[in-house]
Write a structure and sequence with these properties.
Layout: H1 7-19, H2 29-32, H3 36-45, H4 61-66, E1 77-80, H5 87-94, H6 105-110, H7 145-160, E2 163-170, H8 183-188, E3 197-205, H9 224-235, E4 240-244, H10 247-256
Parallel strand pairs: 1-2, 2-3, 3-4
Helix pairs in contact: 1-3, 5-10
Bound molecules: Nicotinamide 2-fluoro-adenine dinucleotide (NFD).
Length: 273
Amino acid sequence: PGTTSNITDILTGRCEEYRKCLLGEPCLPFYRNVKCRAAVESFFKGIRNMDPCATPDNAYDEFLNMVPPTTVRGTTMFWSGVMGNNIPQDVAQVTPEFSVLEETFPGYMAGNLSWCGATDGDGTGLGLNFTVCPTWTSETCPNNTKAAFWARASKMLATQAVGDVYVVLNAQRAGGAFNNGSIFATIEAPNLNQDVVTNVAIYLIPDFTLPIPNEMYRETCTNGSVLYLQNFLMNMNFNVTCEENPKEIMWLQCARFANSPYCGPYAKGTPVV
Ligand code: NFD
């Protein structure tokens, strides 16, 4: 995929927006003093002149310590397998009760951008590739420049979460709603803190992007990988709740896909398909 050629300007602009509290997100006094030029410099520092598939885990630590992801107690929301239509991010944006990584300082800065390191230089002298970046796959390029960023930011998000937390999962995800290889499974869930997290609420939503609702592969709160996740979390001593088609998320899905069999007066229980 192509890269974001003006990424330095975008990061700087988004940093200024966030720091000056122009976004309506929780805005900490700590952030007000962020020096955006220094923050953007530290964002690139660990990846310049680096192989884009061999990024060290700690490449962004200096940056992430300058602008750590912070969420209000009881609002942290994770998501996995529901990328296609940005539903959790959009719900979180208009619902103060929920905060996702993409609304935190580092998540807002890097959201929807594409970038990577380059060892051979490409004439810019910046040690970055401004033409094309390798696609992340666990086999060909696991330690991708971008993957390392989201992995570390996700870890910090989970580590600092306090109170009730939420995770939105796709009931019809191929291979199971709770995907073993996902960042939620490998990084976020294992880094939640039993001493301060009061409940993990699983929000299981249907996949509205499917051309035909596939009931065969629709998990519920009492079967498949979702049941596995509940047991996994309970074994870690967390309180766990699970809800299918929660209204907190469904309202936006149903606003966007108004004719869905999962919406409307007949949607309770088994959907009419
Ligand atoms: P997904 P998830 N390395 O739907 N987050 O649980 C790389 F590089 O399966 C936010 O993995 O959910 N990419 C963003 C990966 C990105 C990897 C990633 C991996 N090991 C994570 N695994 C963001 N805003 O862009 C999956 N991907 C790709 C945080 C996958 O191809 C959020 O806090 C797809 O494009 C959220 O709670 C995207 O990452 C959780 O981790 C999502 O994969 C979602 O990661």
